[in-house]
């Protein structure tokens, strides 16, 4: 399979799922789990699963979505409302970038709304719907 411990640590630290890692190396997520055990790694610690994240979805280096939630949420396409967004994710066209980690969910949500407002004002984040109540709350 040829995945070094260093590479695996890097992937886990970028909050990649086992399936994401497996896809890169053309293997199964079960093989990735075996490697994690072999290298005696703690994926929860490396992924910092106890943090709330804020992330961007990028298409051709342009922000098309801002989101927040637990570490794996940025890669889930099953819960996307917009069919184009969902299809782009399923086809592997979306890049992911984490831009914040917070101890409190409320802090992550507030930062998410700030970024949505910022990118919407720039004509970006086309897959985000902006709720005026949330925006007003942030600017108070």
Structural overview:
This protein is an alpha+beta fold and 140 residues long. The chain has helices spanning 5-13, 18-25, 29-38, 43-47, 83-90, 105-121, 132-139; strands at residues 52-59, 62-69, 95-102. The protein has a three-stranded antiparallel beta sheet with strand order 2-1-3. Helix 2 crosses helix 3. The longest helix has 17 residues, at 105-121. The N and C termini lie far apart (53 Å).
Summarize the structure.
With 140 residues, this protein is of the alpha+beta class. The chain has 7 helices and 3 strands, in the order H-H-H-H-E-E-H-E-H-H.
Please tag this protein with its features.
140 residues; three-stranded antiparallel beta sheet; 3 strands
Topology:
Elements: H1 5-13, H2 18-25, H3 29-38, H4 43-47, E1 52-59, E2 62-69, H5 83-90, E3 95-102, H6 105-121, H7 132-139
Antiparallel strand pairs: 1-2, 1-3
Helix pairs in contact: 2-3
Number of strands: 3
Shape: globular
Roughly what fraction of the amino acids lie in strands?
Answer: 15-25%
Mean pLDDT: 91
Q: Tell me roughly what share of residues is in helical segments.
A: 40-55%
Main sheet strand line-up: 2-1-3
């Amino acid at each position: 399979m040829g995945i070094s411990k260093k590479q695996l640590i890097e992937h886990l630290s970028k909050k990649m799922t086992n399936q994401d890692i497996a896809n890169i190396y053309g293997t199964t997520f079960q093989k990735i789990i075996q490697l994690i055990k072999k290298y005696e790694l703690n994926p929860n610690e490396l992924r910092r699963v106890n943090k709330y994240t804020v992330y961007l979805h990028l298409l051709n280096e342009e922000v098309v979505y801002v989101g927040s939630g637990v570490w794996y949420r940025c890669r889930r396409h099953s819960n996307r409302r917009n069919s184009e967004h969902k299809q782009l994710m399923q086809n592997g066209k979306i890049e992911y970038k984490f831009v914040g980690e917070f101890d409190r969910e409320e802090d992550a949500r507030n930062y998410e709304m700030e970024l949505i407002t910022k990118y919407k004002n720039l004509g970006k984040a086309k897959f985000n719907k902006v709720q005026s109540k949330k925006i007003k709350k942030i600017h108070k």
